Each structure stands twice: as C-alpha cells, then as structure tokens.
Amino acid sequence: MGGSQFRPVYHPAGHDNDLRVAVQDLRTGRWVSMAQLLARTPDWALWTQRTQVLAAVAAGSDVVQAWRAEEPDSLAAAVMHTRVAVERAVRAHRGGHPRTRELWQEAWEACRLTAHASPADPVPWVCLLALSLLDEHAQMEEHRLAPPGPMLPPGPWGLLAEADKRDPHNREAYHRMLQFMYARSRGPLSEAFNFVQWAAGSAPPGSALHVMPLYVRVERYRRERGQERALDLHWVAEDAVRDAQHALHTWFLLTATDLASPLDLNHLAHALWGALHFGDAARVFEALGPYWTTHPWAFRTRDPADQALAEEVFVRARARSLAGRD
Hints:
Layout: H1 17-27, H2 32-39, H3 44-58, H4 63-70, H5 75-94, H6 100-117, H7 123-131, H8 157-166, H9 171-183, H10 190-202, H11 212-223, H12 238-250, H13 262-274, H14 278-288, H15 307-323
C-alpha cells in the first residue's frame, strides 16, 4: 500500500480475526460468538487479552447479563460479568460519577467470587489490580504492601503475585501495576522506570514486558510537554534508543505478532521511528498492517485529544520508515 492510498484502521482486536468477529456481534447485542471464542481460547495470556477487549465493548450494554441468564453455570460468563463490573467502576471513577463507590464495591465482590469459582484464572486478580487505582489514598492494606525489591514503592504487590502465579509475566497485570504507579507519581516517574526495568529484567525472551519501558518514556514525554526543551531529542537519547532496540530484539523478533497487542506494536514502531531507526521501524509497521492506536501518536501532536492529528503522525511516521528501509 503506497502512502497516498494507505488508510489506517483502529480496532482493538488488531489481527485477531476471531476476536474481531466476536466484537462485531457484541456491538449488535449477540453473545454467542463471544462464548464460543472464549471456549476455544488456548492459554491464559490470550484469555486475559480477549476478555479485556470484550469487556470494553460490552460495558455499555446488558449483553453479558443476557448470557448469564441463559447460561448461569458458565464460568466464562462469570468472568465476563466481573470484567464488565470492573470496567464500569473504572469508567465511573474516571468520570467522577456519584455511584463510583457502589460500583467499586460490586466489582470488588465480583472479583472475589470469580477468583473462588475459577481459582486457576489470573483475570480476577488482574481485575483487582485495576480496582486498586480507585483507592487513591491506599487505604486498603492490600494496596500498600512492601515491594519485592529495592527502589520500588509499596503497592498491591500481593495482587500482582497472585496474577503472576497463574500466568507468569501476564501483560495486563503488569500494565495495571504501572498505572497504579503513575497515579501516585506527580514527579519524574523514577519509581515507574524502576518498576518496568525490574519487570523486564525478570521476563523471558519473547515477553511483552520488554516493551514496557517504552510506555514510561511516552508518559514522561506527555508530562513534560509544557517544558521548554527540544522534545524530539527525548527519543534519540542513548538510553531511549537502547530501550527501543531491546524491545525489538527481546520481544518483536522472538514472538508471533499476529496476536500481539496493537498498543505494544504501535509503541515499538513509534520508539524506533523516533530514534531514527527507520529500517527497524519499517519491520514493525509491516507487522502492524493497517492497525493503529491513538496512543502514543497523539502525544506527538499539538492537541492530543484530536484523533485526526494522531492519525496524521502515524501515517507520516509509517511512510518515512518504509521509505528508509535498507
């Protein structure tokens, strides 16, 4: 596809064609495709990823409630009920909704019930990590446990350990922990940097945790927009280039990217393009195909809320990278 003909596509399923079908059916109020998809999902990592995407779509409807009414003994339906309850509580908190505390309590109870009903599943623990963001002052003891290593802050480490025990290096669990750290850091993000380096340092080759340092760099870039500095130098600094190359060689080149998170692929393409490593960036853009995500591209625009501007940056970065292939 040439630059003039290329049109990027936003879809949370990315290359996961089966998930895309289930999402489409969800949007029309049908749950059978979702149930069938989850029944044949082969591992906890993909199960976590798919239930997260499905819940984001289902949270605005009663489709999961309808599924539970039809199949009250379905564990998958119980997991999706929990996912939707957590998604609604998080959205309510983000929007300052007066029912936030009530929705939070309902979601917390759903997590505990599902964890008991499906003890091998990491998702209830991932969901409890998501809810930890709502405890802004860490009043719950489980949200201020001592960390497992130096240079790390107190936090919901027990919840992360429970998710990790069920699915080692679960991508969403570690990203939820990172969000917890963002929420408690108004400064230079040193604790978040320490966390992602610690997480990546223990992750095996091929793990998506090797991409996490790129997310913290984007967050730092976002927070520093108001400062008078040559912001593009942020991406060509030696440590930024090293993080981008590390993610390329320890994750991208060692994993099947057809079911990878579109966000991870976009962050890696963005980092390599920003580091002026256009040939490497082109390989990631080719793996992405047409699929793009608003972040991190939005933070390279004058108005991060304008999706059209973010799309322009993505298209421009892609064209420059493909033109720069060796």
